[in-house]
Amino acid sequence: MKKLYWLGLVLPLMSCGKRNEKWDEPAGSGQSVGLTGSVALVDENLNRALMLTSPAPYQLDSRAFPIGKDVAAIETSADRDTLFVLSRGVQPRRNPDDELPSITVIDAGPEPELVKRFELTDPKESLAVDPDEDWLVAFQGGATVTNPNEFVLLPLGQNADDVESVTIRSFGGVPRDVLFTDPLVVPNGPPRRFLIVHTDRDIALIDLSDLSREEVTIQTPETEAGTASTPAQVVFDPGVAGSDDDPGRFARIGVRLQNEPDVMLLELGVPTEGSNKDFEVKFNIINVGGIPSAIEFVNTDFGLRLAALVPTRSQATLIDPATTVIEAVSLPDRYTQLARVTEDAGDEGELALLYSPETEGIAFWALGRASGDLSKSVQQNEIQLRVAEVHDVPGENYAHLKILQGADSDRFFILDLKARQTFPMLTDSSGFIVNVAPDGERAWAFRPDGSEFASIEFSDLHPTSLSVALRVSEVWDIERSDGSRAALALHGTDGRFGAAPSVTLLDAEAPDSADTRFFGSLMLEGL
Amino acid sequence: MRVLVATALLAVTPAALAQAPAETAPAQTQAPAQQAPKSQPEKPGAAPAAPAPEPKGEKVPGTEAAAQKTTEPKPAGAARAAEAPAEPAPARPAADAAKGSAAATAPPPTQAPKQEPAETLSSDLTPSEPSAPHVLPAPANAAGPGPVQPPPEPERFRLLYTGPLGYHQDHYFVNAGFRLDLVRDPRFDIFASSDALPHLSVQAGRTIMTQGEFSAALLLAWDYGGRNDRVRDTDQTSLGVHRLGAGIEARYHLVHRLYLLGRLRLGAARAHAVLKEVRDFVSNQWLFDGRAVLGAAFELLGKPDGTERKPRLWFVAEGGYVLTSSVDLTLEPNNPNEAPERAQPVELGEMNLKGATMRFGLVISY
Q1: Would you call B341 and A17 a contact, using CB atoms and an 8 Å cutoff?
Q2: SS3 B265
Q3: Which of A483, A516, B134, B331 is most exposed, with minimal Cβ within 10 Å?
Q4: Each residue of A374-389: pLDDT tens digit?
Q5: Residue pLDDT, tens place only, A345-385
Q6: What's the whole-number average pLDDT of chain A?
Q7: Can you tell me the distance from the alpha carbon of B265 to that of B201, in angstroms, rounded to the nearest whole number?
Q8: Does the structure show a pLDDT above 90 at A106?
């Protein structure tokens, strides 16, 4: 019995000084985001982002940044040099110290730093980043009572402390997505940027040059069933500012309607006399002969057209926005997607790429050379791939290349727009994912279930096969502090197989399986 | 535990200890009267002419000091004897009489002649006959005809042993126990869910010096402690620490069964940290290790007589502070060049194992 007395004394002592809870928080999957100079590893359980950098060859560094509690959305800037994290904070807040919803902005270069932290009054679920990095928009509230039509706009420029809330007029709709436009030419006043919000039954234009101006809401037409049609895609043409020689044209907006054969064509036209508005929206509804799968403004020899792909008819419909006259163009197959590649194709004139995840092959549509019979402007390229995604190659050196990737294929293609050639890259199994390096010099292909991957240099399209010890979940190519580049093959960041996140580091410019470094226990970094 | 508390109470009241022999004086003075028929026809009050018997057998450590102590006057006993002039004063051993103790100068008894006195508690000079000094005189109310049987040795008597500390103090010892360090360093959380770092602890040494109730001992010590846990639900971690050291221990005996101690120990520690992930990452480092503790030891089992070199079992409890140099938690892979990983070290900062410490142990002395 005396021994039990000692146990009674010792056991409480053994449990004294409980350790910090952070060591007991599960590591989680560690969602990763590849950026220009770093890889963000989101540690949601500890409310932080680990920014992994490579200061020198085969060296890995990490810095932890707080990102707020309960992450709702993670976004990057278009050039991937900035990370934005939207968090809900503590909900419901019961104490003054409970964390508010916030947006954290982190510079994701080779030496990451915390740029800004915005605090919000109510939690939001979605975040949109302006491609020009002038604005952030948080929307779709997540509180007990929310106003779905409220948008919180946060300027990223000089007046970064000014948080403005804009509520659009509601006709019963719920916002689905937002689109930042380029500066649009309007009749009165300088060109200005708009935030286009499309709900499930209307679209709203918010003038970003003056948020105090009332937004313009355009309701969609009713369907045959009597319900409001739903916007499925919004595109815009910025217009052309007039000059002495050229009258120019005002900006236009095209709206594709879900499961409807009609498209809406809006013009930011001249307001009626006596109006003090800078523009007035004039719109037409045009039937394109079938349900369109994609629309895009294109510049043909005959001027601006709104192109709509109608796969059920294997045709494209060109709409003259000035007259709403339509012209049908027969296509060699049922292409469902259209991508303008004019700027990347060199001096080819207006060029669009047609593809479909349901149909093998692609087609080039040379709209700039279309004269007479438009059908002859379509050139088919029969590749054995149902293209689901087209990846751009950033930078100037290889912008004419596109990566064509299928949904679940054992191959992908590199498309040379200048030469109109496609180069197949065959893989030993299906399910490969392709990432393009931010410097535009190479691509990385990997299969999430495998430990083998490859880099493809765009200079000679030479693939280098690589192998590491563990299953690869992501491959990111980042800039090192010394100006060279490093490749991070991440393991365990997809939350599968219960593995803790770790990384194998390679020299991205001269990758070699025999010259790698492995760094484990990433989620213990910075604790 | 109750024994320990009672002992502690006695230990912290030296006055009570000093008074303890005096309290037995009346009983001692009555015993000869009750055994008057068997008493020897010796002249009452006369000092025995025979010299004090020499100790037999080996020389007992501490005997000289004890002898000097027992030959000093006993004021408490003398006072008690003076307060009871009607009672016959017992004859004292030669040593006491020779020193002219108060008992020896007390008035002669008026009743029965003095018998050969039972050896008193202070007769420490006969270590070879331990049983005789331990016989208490019969209590005063145990009057009756016939010989009086010695009463069973009461437990309390063991605590009141005031003989030479002898081997209670001067001995070899082996000490095994359980030690608990409280490590407050946040890095320690990597290896444990609490701040406790338990050790198995072994010490061995011997007394090198005695001076009255004070003594000093040198010792060698080895401790092994460790913790293991999981961090972030994925990685298994463990920490093991071997500690080797030499130390000096100063003691002060409150009674023969109880002494206070202070110990200073210096040495080296070998820390072995492991992080198990897809492969093992380890760190092995030598550290400086020092500690200072205060404590107490209580003799659980053993002969009260300090003149006998016998095994004795002690319980020791101590507390203090540990100082160590820092551990660099740069954990290296087992085989850093093994392909294809070529794993790199995991850097987890620095950790210091300093902190409060406490220890419980059992000591076998001989």
Answers
A1: no
A2: strand
A3: A483
A4: 667 888 888 888 999 9
A5: 777 678 889 999 998 999 988 887 655 666 678 888 888 88
A6: 86
A7: 13
A8: yes
**Nearest-CA neighbor of A480 among A33, A180, A54?**
A54
Q: What is the pLDDT of residue B11?
A: 38
SS3 assignment, position B307: coil
Q: DSSP letter at B257?
A: T
A60 close to B (CB below 8 A): yes
- Contact (Cβ atoms closer than 8 angstroms) between residue B180 and residue B195: no
Instruction: Report d(CA A404, CA A421) in Å as an integer.
Output: 12
Count of beta carbons in the 10 Å neighbourhood of residue B104: 19
**DSSP state at residue A408:** S
- ipTM surpassing 0.90: no
Instruction: Round the average pLDDT of chain B to a whole number and report it.
Output: 69
Choose the most confident range, by mean pLDDT, from A465-474, B38-47, B52-61: A465-474
- Contact call for residues A436 and A456 (beta carbons, < 8 A): no
Please tell me whether residue B251 adopts helix, strand or coil conformation.
strand
A222, two tokens: 């009713």
- Between chain A and chain B, the number of residue pairs with CB atoms below 8 A apart is 107
Q: B340–A467: do the CB atoms touch at under 8 Å?
A: yes
What is the distance in angstroms between the Cα of B233 and the nearest Cα belonging to chain A? 5
Please name the residue that has the structure tokens 């009461």: B154
Backbone angles phi, psi at A517, to 5 degrees: -135, 140
Integer Cα distance of A370 and A367 in angstroms: 5
CA distance linking residue A398 with residue A185, whole number of Å: 32
The residues, ordered by sequence, that sit 6+ positions from A113 with a Cβ below 8 Å of its Cβ are A106, A107
A437: amino acid identity, one letter = A
**If you ran DSSP here, which 8-state letter would residue B150 be given?**
P
Is B190 exposed, middle or buried (CB count within 10 Å of its CB: 0-12, 13-18, 19+)?
buried
Contact of A187 with A279, CB cutoff 8 Å: yes
Q: Check residue B321 and give its pLDDT.
A: 96
Q: Which residue has the higher pLDDT, A204 or B50?
A: A204
Instruction: Please give the angle made by the CA atoms of B117, B122 and B125, to the nearest 5 degrees.
Output: 90
Global confidence as pTM = 0.75
Task: Give the total residue count for chain B.
Answer: 366
3-state SS assignment for residue A139: strand
pLDDT score recorded for residue A312? 92
Q: Which of B206, B360, B205 is nearest to B298 (CA)?
A: B360
* Contacts of B205 by beta carbon, 8 Å cutoff, 6+ apart: B172, B173, B217, B218, B219, B220, B249
Residues 267-326 of B with CB under 8 A from A: 275, 277-279, 281
The alpha carbon of residue B274 is apart from the nearest alpha carbon of chain A, in Å, by: 12
- Per the structure block, which two tokens stand in for A368? 């700039």
Q: Tell me the three state secondary structure of residue B85.
A: coil
B233 vs A26: CB contact, 8 Å cut-off?
yes
Write down the pLDDT at residue B86: 37
